[in-house]
Automatic annotation (TrEMBL):
Transmembrane stretches, start-end: 313-334
Organism: Micromonospora orduensis
Ligand binding (substrate): K217
InterPro entries: Beta-lactam/transpept-like (IPR012338), Peptidase_S11 (IPR018044), Peptidase_S11_N (IPR001967)
Stretches of the chain forming a coiled coil according to its record: none
Protein name: D-alanyl-D-alanine carboxypeptidase
Gene Ontology process terms (BP): cell wall organization; peptidoglycan biosynthetic process; proteolysis; regulation of cell shape
Length: 341
């Protein structure tokens, strides 16, 4: 199936997914790891603020949400005009407040603070290194963080498939799930800095407008365009959608996510075109490559399986059509991360 020149892979018998402007996307089951469909899932892209999910997956288990910490001048070093929640240098906040500032308002200063605080060295750069280590552990080998916030940096990239792995790790944490569904939160006054308290609102419209929403994260930079991760539950089934490189017309990023979630819930529960790898799986002992479908064999719309191939990870997808068999290599993910050209 082609969508505006892009190859879309879906299970046999599944309806056609909606057309979206995103250059790549993926829909998967959060619980089983089944991939229900995708378009360029291993295509390199720029994350923008959905990178904050990797920060959450890495640092949330390390930090005590009740601890009160001090924001530093270094934390406030963000690109002028970029997203900020309104923390102030010298201000005293709980870790939970900073997480809410990160996930509700996409605060870039909050990202700097959390990367620094969770680094173990009080250095945000070491926090970014920890994020990359966590991405590797999760199997997100097409992900490399340069900034904790997702502000553009040279050599920073991810993929729709990797974002699904990262989102799955986030939604496995009860604290993250609670934050992701929080509609508003107070940012306390800082008398010593002469700032008043105020309320922040969750910017992810999914939680207000989509029944069964579990939350997610929006992102945008001029380079990345619109990026989105969202999850929802329906009939005891939890799905996640990830998309990169979207334009806001005719639908905004979260609305494109909604369209793909609606489609995903129509796909049979046992159908898939592949699966999400488990944490640590790609650093385990290599296994044999799966057999690919051959002409005259079974006729699913797509069949895939993970395979180690010497120095890398190969996700193969076999698409059966009336014209015959087309073997698509979704992407070769090298253990040694490479930079974008």
């Amino acid at each position: 199936m082609l969508e505006r020149g892009k190859q879309v892979v879906v299970p046999a018998g599944a309806g056609a997914p909606p057309a979206v402007s995103a250059t790549s996307w993926l829909v998967a089951d959060l619980d089983t790891g089944r991939v229900l469909g995708g378009c360029g899932p291993h295509q390199y892209g720029t994350p923008a603020s959905v990178q904050k999910l990797l920060l959450a997956a890495t640092m949330m288990p390390r930090l005590d949400p009740k601890q009160t910490v001090t924001v530093t001048d270094e934390d406030m070093n963000i690109e002028p005009g970029s997203s900020a929640v309104g923390l102030v240098a010298g201000g005293r906040y709980t870790i939970e407040t900073i997480w809410l500032g990160l996930l509700l308002n996409s605060g870039n200063e909050a990202a700097n603070a959390l990367a620094r605080l969770g680094s173990g060295t009080d250095r945000a750069a070491d926090g970014v290194r920890a994020m990359n280590d966590e991405a590797h552990r999760l199997g997100a080998l097409q992900t490399h963080a340069v900034t904790p916030s997702g502000l553009d940096g040279k050599g920073q990239f991810t993929s729709a498939y990797d974002l699904a792995l990262i989102a799955r790790a986030c939604f496995a944490q009860p604290t993250f799930r609670r934050y992701a569904l929080t509609e508003q939160a107070p940012i306390p006054a800082q008398p010593a800095q002469r700032t008043k308290g105020f309320l922040i609102q969750n910017e992810n419209q999914l939680i207000y407008r989509y029944p069964g929403a579990l939350g997610g994260k929006t992102g945008f930079t001029d380079l990345a365009r619109h990026t989105y991760v969202g999850a929802a539950e329906r009939g005891g089934r939890r799905l996640v959608v990830t998309l990169l490189g979207a334009e806001s017309a005719p639908k905004r990023g979260w609305e494109q996510g909604v369209s793909l979630l609606d489609w995903g819930f129509t796909v049979p529960r046992d159908a898939s075109v592949g699966r999400l790898v488990e944490p640590g799986e790609l650093t385990a002992t290599p296994s044999a490559a799966p057999a690919l479908a051959a002409p005259g064999g079974p006729r699913p719309a797509a069949a895939s399986g993970p395979a180690h191939s010497g120095s890398g990870w190969l996700w193969s997808v076999t698409v059966i059509s009336g014209a015959g068999v087309l073997v698509l290599l979704g992407g070769l993910l090298w253990r040694r991360r490479r930079r974008l050209p």
